[in-house]
Amino acid sequence: DQQVKQNSPSLSVQEGRISILNCDYTNSMFDYFLWYKKYPAEGPTFLISISSIKDKNEDGRFTVFLNKSAKHLSLHIVPSQPGDSAVYFCAASDAGGTSYGKLTFGQGTILTVHP
Amino acid sequence: NAGVMQNPRHLVRRRGQEARLRCSPMKGHSHVYWYRQLPEEGLKFMVYLQKENIIDESGMPKERFSAEFPKEGPSILRIQQVVRGDSAAYFCASSPTGRITEAFFGQGTRLTVV
Lengths: 115, 114
Fold this sequence. Notes:
The complex is a heterodimer of chains A (115) and B (114). Chain A is mostly beta strands. Chain A is built from no helices and eleven strands.
């Protein structure tokens, strides 16, 4: 049972444009969400997170939006840069962000940003 | 300050052999998580350990898999009598507080069972 789903295996975007990566979840107990970026042969790197008490969190070029009623979150990257090309994973926790929480990951979306 | 170190980076084992994967956390980190990534899938939680204690092993297969994090030395994920289905990338992450948002991942060990 896939509780976190990233339905787009890949996304191709032109440099300077917006990249929108989507993620859906089914478990209502999830209360904290994270996005990770992963380059080949490396481990995931934490990018940005959002608590379920918020609907938006912004950090530089990265913004995460959460729609609890739709059980949907998205990551916006503006403007996209070639160095953003990587696999992006959405992850969720049911233990909040301030306590330990094992994460449930989506399958990942490969983002390619063309110069 | 070195990052989370995993070794070996690549490990090839024949069916039935044992695999030992090592994870040295970042300096000052006493909390370790292990995740497994099967081909075409996301990472799946296996186990969460603190020094000398297993806190949550709900993601570990019941048989053949074990993990430890001794007082001294790296955390070890041990897979006995490996099968082809164990072929995957195994990632560990370490955290100073246990909070996953403060955790850093290692580069992973790619296990191939032939």
